[in-house]
Amino acid sequence: MDMEYMKPAEIEKRSFEIITQELGDRQFPEEIAPVVKRVIHTTADFDYADNLMFSPHAVRQALQAIQDGAHIVTDTNMAKSGINKKILAKFGGEVHCFVAEPDVAAEAKQRGVTRSTVSMERAAKLHVPLIFAIGNAPTALIQLEKMIASGQLHPELIVGVPVGFVNVVESKERIMQAGVPYIVARGRKGGSNVAASIINALLYQLVQREGF
Known about the structure:
This protein is an alpha/beta fold.
């Protein structure tokens, strides 16, 4: 097999060309296609062409929220580190992750709940427009759904892509019924890298639109 030799800047472009070729006749709405392709690029997993679910107008609403200065909340520092904070900052946004804060850990232990649960409660107190990017903890999605149902929270978007086996499928399905915009990877697949790639796909759409 012949190797392709190219400059680093060309590798991503070529990867997306390969993804487009392998998707064949599959067609996606204009705003959704970059999200699906970037997740496939991140994971090399074409199952995401079928299991990524979008609420109506989710991408459009998320792009507007970011333009209006929405902040991003993640459930892992890995997801936080993977998001392009330089682009987000151009629109006045920041990325937050509270899961490793000592007081969050202490409260979670005292209450007998997960740190992700407490982290979501902490995020709800930010009092700015929020987009949640959840790639690890189904308990984060469960807590978000509870706060939405009680009127404590109305996020601009929930990216629900935790990975695993316990309560993962169920928590995603609950978010899809919560009445807020969502991008969800249905089933067991996902991860912090997927959550970050979805947010970055949104940010890069804005870069193209605004000509940064």
